[in-house]
Amino acid sequence: MSTETNRRRYAVDLEGEGVHERPDLSYGAYLGLDTLLASQHPRSDEHDELLFIVIHQASELWMKLSLHELRAAREQVRKDELGPAFKMIARVARIQAQLIQSWDVLSTLTPADYTRFRPYLGQSSGFQSWQYRLLEYVLGNKNAGMMAVHRGDPTAHAALEQALAEPSLYDEALRLLARRGFDIPADRLDRDWREPYRASPEVEAAWLAVYRDTAAHWDLYELAEKLVDLEQRFQTWRFSHMKTVERVIGFKQGTGGTGGVSYLSKALDLTFFPELFSLRTSL
Ligand code: HEM
Ligand SMILES: N[C@@H](CC(=O)c1ccccc1NC=O)C(=O)O
């Protein structure tokens, strides 16, 4: 069949689906590829710098989608609509698998390869990824001190300020527990959300009750396990980042001014959902 006949057949088939709203729309225009594919600007002439840029850009795109899903999931939890929330969280888990897998591609970068273009990075660093920081805030790792580095970027700063000041996904899960009749301390249900979350024995007891009678609380149990899955994957990403950094720059200082691996290893101690892990010792 000729291309022309094919084209006309599709045009007919798609008529009912609103194709006439923009019949000239192309793949590249729809996806904004002009801008996307013109956004890689290596600063050196080194072959491997493009890999470094693409991995980071792809990661930022996945982070954008994760934020979209997690904020929507949080809204569904707020509305007691756990089914749609589960679907969104499951998608984030698969995105995390992609993010984790990207370390495998980056591990083809040897110390010699990286050292050739590292000086061109100046003081730029993943430390300045505001989407990463937003993810941490939306999940529940509130650390207002991390805002400082974004002072010069009003859009990023405003988004971070908002995420810092509103309940995280975990805060909403605890409010849901309270609506279901669990005894959650008042200061965990309404507080200055900008403060780091502090683990509470009452919250652990509530989750423990969910895990001890899963039949009675099946959806809460499912929510808890989905959160545990998110945290485990997040930790796997952090750990692989740290090991990749060690492999590529050893124990050199980071371009962002931290100790490098020593800083990244401390970040591994940060937990989003502390009671969901601590309760396991009592099961
Ligand atoms: C050769 C590859 C990489 C090296 C050597 C590296 C190195 C580092 C170092 C040393 C830090 C600590 C901050 C500093 O002082 O600069 C850091 C932070 C960070 N990097 Fe990377 N990195 C690499 C790849 C990536 C990739 C692919 C991403 C994906 C987006 C990423 C995201 C981040 C983030 C989000 C932080 C902040 C972590 C936090 O504050 O907990 N890095 N990186
Ligand atoms: N902190 C890294 C530099 C770095 O990795 C980086 C630099 C610019 C943009 C993204 C980066 N990735 C993660 O930190 C280093 O010290 O080599």
Automatic annotation (TrEMBL):
The record's annotation in Gene3D superfamilies points to: 1.20.58.480
Q: Which GO terms describe its molecular function?
A: heme binding; L-tryptophan 2,3-dioxygenase activity; metal ion binding
Superkingdom of the source species: Bacteria
Q: Which Pfam families match?
A: Trp_dioxygenase
Identify the pathway: Amino-acid degradation; L-tryptophan degradation via kynurenine pathway; L-kynurenine from L-tryptophan: step 1/2
> Which HAMAP family does the record cross-reference, listed alphabetically?
T23O (MF_01972)
Q: Subunit notes for this chain?
A: Homotetramer.
- Provide the function of this protein: Heme-dependent dioxygenase that catalyzes the oxidative cleavage of the L-tryptophan (L-Trp) pyrrole ring and converts L-tryptophan to N-formyl-L-kynurenine. Catalyzes the oxidative cleavage of the indole moiety.
What protein does this entry describe?
Answer: Tryptophan 2,3-dioxygenase
